[in-house]
Amino acid sequence: MVKGQEMTEASINNSFSVIALYYGQYSKKYTVNDANEVIIKELINDNVKSLKESVLDSDEKPSSESLLNNICLIATGATIILSRLSEKSPEESYAELRNLLLKKNKDYKGASFDLGMSGNVVHLWDKVSRLNNLNNNTDPNFEAIDDTLRDIIGYCVIGLHIISKNHAKENNNCR
Predict the structure, then answer these.
(1) What is the DSSP letter of 63?
(2) Dihedral in degrees, nearest 10, Cα atoms 136, 72, 69, 73
(3) How many CB atoms lie within 10 A of CB 116?
(4) Which residue from 96, 70, 80 is spatially nearest to 162, judged by alpha carbons?
(5) pLDDT, average across residues 102-115
(6) Full-prediction pTM beyond 0.70?
(7) CA distance 167 to 18
(8) Residue 137 half-sphere exposure, CB side, CA atoms within 13 Å?
């Protein structure tokens, strides 16, 4: 568990760099249109279910590679849809999110890491459930789809940070 960790601009940039690699690969595969948006949402749902099963429902510890893959695919799907809705490039969205994450992390003092990967998966599960519900509700009471997508990407960045810190910790314990 990574308690009280705070993200730096460098760690956020590293996370966005990893997500951008996935985005580059998958955005070519899925040109954004209504039909592919359904497939992209299935990609998000399938990967958040996989995360839940491997982190919350299994007694076995998931590999860092499988966690990284699930999280990056969720973030990529959310980025593809967000780019379509906001008419902004992923780079523009990531720049806005980077600043937001730094400010929120400062306010929360790293509390997003106190429950480790389990807490992160719960947050992602809630946000993806919210996204699914918003798809059926054209007049939401509070948060709009683009806000939910930004939150999903933000929790993915936090998840990548947790994986990185846990991996570094495990490597130090092996010495």
Answers:
(1) P
(2) 30
(3) 16
(4) 70
(5) 81
(6) yes
(7) 16
(8) 13
